[in-house]
Amino acid sequence: MALMITDECINCDVCEPECPNGAISQGDEIYVIDPNKCTECVGHFDEPQCQQVCPVDCIPLDPGHQETKDQLMDKFLKLTGKA
């Protein structure tokens, strides 16, 4: 699954620079995650870095974008040009 940012987001800006895929950006009201770029940090790190630094724990799995670890790895390979 890709991750998502909920409306509990306080716009603290700590998640955006941690994303190795550039999937996080400022939305209209809160930060948002592009599910086409989010790999849950598969291929980069053992755990999603945005979740690790979020002070309000507002970055859960996005039930609207379910993916297996293999699918996330395939996405990582395509995004990094290693496919």
Automatic annotation (TrEMBL):
Oxidoreductase among keywords: no
SUPFAM superfamilies: 4Fe-4S ferredoxins
Pfam families: Fer4_7
Molecular function GO terms recorded: 4 iron, 4 sulfur cluster binding; metal ion binding
Ranges annotated as spanning the membrane: none
Sequence ranges assigned to domain 4Fe-4S ferredoxin-type in this UniProt record: 1-29, 31-64
GO CC terms, sorted: cytoplasm
PANTHER family per UniProt: PHOTOSYSTEM I IRON-SULFUR CENTER (PTHR24960:SF79), PHOTOSYSTEM I IRON-SULFUR CENTER-RELATED (PTHR24960)
Protein's name in the database: Ferredoxin
Source organism: Thauera humireducens
Record lineage: Bacteria, Pseudomonadati, Pseudomonadota, Betaproteobacteria, Rhodocyclales
